[in-house]
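In response to reviewer comment 3 from the previous cycle, which asked for concrete evidence that the modeling workflow produces usable outputs, we include below a single protein chain processed end to end. The sequence was submitted unchanged, and the resulting structure tokens are shown without manual editing.
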Amino acid sequence: MPGGVKWLGLWNTLSRGAEASQRYWEASAKIRSLPEELKMKQWMRVSALLTLALPAAAAGLLASAGHAQAATEIGGEKIVTLSRKPASTTRPEFTGVTVLPGRGMELLYVTANFPGKGEMQVLNSPDVAEAKKMLDVQDDGFGDLGYRLGAAMLCPYPNRIVGKLSADGKTLTTQWEGHTLTLPANNVGKLPGAERHAMHGLILKAKAEDIHVSKIPGGEQVTGVIHAGDFGGHWLSRTDLDVTVKLTAEAVDVEITAHNVGKQAEPIAIGWHPYFKLPSGDRSQVRIHIPGTMMAQVNNYDSVFPTGKLEPVAGTKYDFTAAAGRALDQNYYDDNWSHLTWKDGAVTTTVVDPKAHYGVKIEGVSPQIRTIQMYAPPTEKFVAIEDQYNFADPFGKEWGKMDTGMVTLKPGQSTKWHVRLRVFVP
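The workflow returned the following structure tokens.
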């Protein structure tokens, strides 16, 4: 009875352990042991179970389909996936990028194929269901969980801003060229008496519009526009952000262009917060190369506020300038490097996991990129490498008259942040 066996297999797949399916399976097993003259009569009786079970199966399918459909939306917008098939059998290639238009065009996943190993995750993110739970259910009003996974876009300021805290502790004020900026005080350290501060910009929950996916030579790209305006009343003038993410075999390019579409000048800085996964899981032997010779001194690793002093890294555990990089060992890092060395039109940071024979290059292409922040806690299996325009607390008095990397855009002017990822076998 081959047809009956096929139906049994199909039904078991659909019902996934429903009671009717279980009874059907038990009965069918007994039927197959009967003499041939009794089989047909028993099959007719057992088929009634299938009739009773089909509505439940259909309901299960609809529920699964509904869950799958819901999981394709985060931040109220459909997830966008760029993909391409690997062609090389000897070198690694990028194969996919997942973008969240409902969360400021954040990158949730980047995948790459390594011959002999298969597809690997470049960014550190949970599965889609968990990411949706984090961002749609557990997150706060500022979108702070957005920079806890994947690669969040940060604008109009990456990093921290310190200022005069309001009486209720919800906002702070800071000054730029005689203008007062009121920002959400959305972050605070864990130590007693830690000071609340603004953190990582104002687009973590922004929705992108005019989403377009198109083919490009060797891959795909997605574009979107974030009409940020005055960033919810927290910023000067009005700003539009054009975001482009490109996928090819050789690279993933991420570009953000900020346009001042308002009537007054404004300060702008752009960056991102990518968590790079360490495939071996052995963080201590991972080697990092950062081409920066100076590091910003901070008050502590809880608040991580800059003191306004820059210190040379030579001869310290913060010296990652060697071409082969430096092992992370068990050191904790949440630091900002500057005085960057440019080569071949980019400032290039590398993450190499020797045990996994795996490497990632992060190429900062925009000349406005002044600093690189690295966040690498020893208990985690990731490292965050953040190419950004600015130093932390760019409006702070601790810097004196130093240029802290904020770009001034007059009405009609624009600035472009551009970072490129590459994968390689070290």
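Residues 36-71 form the longest helix (36 residues). We consider this sufficient to address the reviewer's concern, and the full set will be provided in the supplementary archive.
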